Amino acid sequence: MSARFTKDLADFMKKLDRRMDAVFLDAVGVALESIKIGHAISGAPGQPVQTGNLLNSWDQKVHSKTTATLFSTADYAEHIEEGIGMTVRSAVGGFHSVKMTVAAWSRIMNASVEKVVSQEGE
Prior knowledge:
Blueprint: H1 3-36, H2 53-57, E1 58-62, E2 68-72, H3 77-82, H4 97-103, H5 105-120
Antiparallel strand pairs: 1-2
Helix pairs in contact: 1-4, 1-5
């Protein structure tokens, strides 16, 4: 292999690695937004908001380049997401945002790929 080819290949791998990181981080951000306030990609309605405690309890932790956790610190979040512990729905939120976001993960990833590629160009 020529030195030029080796350098071009190394540059391509760096670009690919940077794009993969950007796509993953963007997708995690979209998923968190989908759970918290809803998103058009997932169709999720977001959290039922009365006091803001549930909405503000959601956060993310990135563990590695390919693994992240989205979580709520509110004890009652699981019950609300399952529709068990709350009977009143806010006009700006609803139930099942986590399930809808998980079901839309491939669409979220595809949108993130398109976004990152369009920002960087081919």
